[in-house]
Specification:
Elements: H1 4-9, H2 11-31, E1 38-39, H3 40-47, H4 51-63, E2 67-73, E3 80-86, H5 91-115, E4 118-120, E5 127-129, H6 130-135, E6 148-150, H7 153-170
Antiparallel strand pairs: 1-3, 2-3, 4-5, 4-6
Helix pairs in contact: 2-4, 3-4, 5-7
Length: 173
């Protein structure tokens, strides 16, 4: 099991976490005590991070299976307390799952871009499919200028390269 600092030292993992939980979330991971489970209130006190930020970070990490909690009930008051601990050993599974979601979106975009011809307005930049351009008689609906063919080969090639790189990283190739 790698330490929190070792995990945060990986630049790509740090960037992934930073996009997910921001600066305060990263600080929570850095300061998170590893000796036992802690309530969100205890974590806020120990780490000196705002309670709402601690809670938001914990819930976000939980959604990505990077934190877990145990719920206990106070029999006198009926209040529930959640005791948290990090599960950063699941980091690579979380990254893989998110990459699979991104990959699917990129594949859909690639299909759309490669199966359609596009027309663009040189004046306002409005871009539409050939079918929509034909329906509007190749006149921009925004500014009424004539639409011209838009070559999206650069975008199609970039999408293809990004898809191939993610597939390679995920071991799909």
């Amino acid at each position: 099991m790698a330490s929190h600092e070792e995990i945060l030292a990986d630049k790509s993992i740090f960037a992934y976490l930073h996009r997910m939980i921001g600066d305060e979330g990263i600080e929570l991971i850095r300061r998170f005590p590893t000796d036992k489970e802690y309530s969100d209130e205890e974590l806020a006190e120990v780490t000196k991070i705002n309670l709402n930020s601690v809670r938001n970070t914990l819930y976000t990490l939980y959604e990505h299976r990077l934190a877990k909690y145990r719920r206990i009930k106070n029999n006198e008051t009926g209040w529930l307390t959640y005791l948290w601990e990090l599960e950063l050993d699941n980091m690579y599974d979380s990254v893989s799952k998110d990459l699979e979601i991104i990959l699917e979106k990129l594949r859909k975009r690639y299909k759309y871009e490669s199966e359609n011809a596009f027309y663009s307005c040189p004046n306002c930049g409005n871009t539409i499919t050939f079918s929509d351009a034909m329906d509007s008689q190749f006149v921009c609906q925004e500014c009424e200028n004539k639409m011209v063919h838009f070559d999206n080969d650069l975008l199609v090639n970039a999408l293809q390269k990004r898809i191939a790189r993610i597939e390679e990283n995920l071991g799909h190739v």
